[in-house]
Structures are given as structure tokens and as C-alpha cells.
Specification:
Low-confidence stretches: none
Shape: globular
Largest sheet: 2 strands, antiparallel
Radius of gyration: 18 Å
Number of helices: 6
Helix content: 40-55%
Strand content: 5-15%
Mean pLDDT: 81
Structural class: mainly alpha
Order of helices and strands: EHHHHEEEHH
Number of strands: 4
Length: 142
């Protein structure tokens, strides 16, 4: 359980659940924190895999040309799923190299805006070696 959600993480998630189209700037104004702070937290929630995607929620009552079967196939929802998130909710993180569980204190490697989490220093070093070309190009771009 290496990453614990705090109040700001929850507020960002709640804001996105209300309207996933909000910009990070809108969320930062709503929460009265800086846009870079919201961006860093949002990127971390993406990097740890808690946020998989921002998807549209379709109001099926507005549709008359699409069948129920087609809706089921595209997995569209008429309302957002309910979640009970609280502060100190623990997030399970998998190692970005071996997919094993990451312990309480993860080994973090950050390049540009991307954070990678590892279970041990060996996985972290192996990752750096395996992707050194990509890492160099990311560093040049930023």
C-alpha cells in the first residue's frame, strides 16, 4: 500500500467525476490550489493506474437511432459509477518492470512528467538500462 490518497487527490477525483471535461485550470480554481499542483497530482493518479481514462457518459434517453445491443457493445453508461473514496485510501501499485507488488516505500524514477514505480533497485536499474534511449529523448524534449 505505497500510495495513500489525501484530501486533494479525492477532491480532484470528485471534480473529474462530476465533469470529466473540466480543464486542470478549472479544477485548480475550484479547489483553490495552483494549476501545476493539480497537474502533478493528476499525472500521479494516472501514473499509478488509478485513473485509466476519462470517458464520456452517454445519456441513452437522448438517442433514438442506436440499439440497446450497440450500447452494450460500446460499454456506455447512463450515469457515473458510484465510489466511496476517503482519505488514506490505499492504492495498490505494480512494479513497472516485473509487474510485482510495490512495497510501502516504492522506488520512484521520474523523467519529465512521468513517474515510474518499482519494487526494488534492481528493477529500477534494469528499466533505466532497457529504456535509456527513450529516456534520453524525453530529457531532450523537456
Amino acid at each position: 500500500m505505497p500510495y495513500q490518497l489525501d484530501e486533494l487527490d479525492l477532491d480532484i477525483l470528485k471534480s473529474l467525476l462530476k465533469d470529466g471535461r473540466k480543464s486542470l485550470r478549472q479544477i485548480s480554481r475550484e479547489l483553490k490550489v495552483s494549476t501545476p499542483t493539480v497537474n502533478i497530482r493528476y499525472q500521479r493518479l494516472l501514473n499509478i493506474g488509478l485513473i485509466k481514462s476519462i470517458t464520456p457518459i452517454i445519456d441513452t434517453s437522448k438517442l433514438d437511432t442506436i440499439s440497446t445491443k450497440q450500447l452494450e457493445e460500446c460499454h456506455c453508461l447512463t450515469e457515473a459509477p458510484k465510489m466511496d473514496l476517503t482519505t488514506n485510501t490505499a492504492i495498490k501499485i505494480q512494479c513497472d518492470l516485473c509487474n510485482g507488488p510495490v512495497p510501502r516505500k516504492p522506488h520512484v524514477y521520474k523523467v519529465a512528467n512521468i513517474e515510474r514505480f518499482f519494487c526494488c533497485t534492481t528493477c529500477k536499474a534494469t528499466y533505466k538500462e532497457k529504456y535509456k534511449g527513450r529516456i534520453k529523448s524525453l530529457i531532450k524534449k523537456s
